[in-house]
Amino acid sequence: LNQTGVKTATIAPDGGSERMRRVINKGISEDTLLTAVEFLVRAGIPNIKLYFMVGLPTETMADVEAVVTLCKKVKLRFLKASRKRQKIGRITVSLNSFIPKPFTPFQWVPFEDINILKAKIKHVKDGLRRVANVQVHADIPRWAYIQALLSRGDRRTADLLVAAHENSGNWARILKESVLNPDFYVYRERSFDEVLPWDFIDHGIKKSYLISEYRKSLRAETTPPCAAGRCTACGVCKKDVFPGSASVL
Question: Which tens digits make up the pLDDT trace of 104-122?
Answer without folding.
Answer: 999 999 999 999 999 999 9
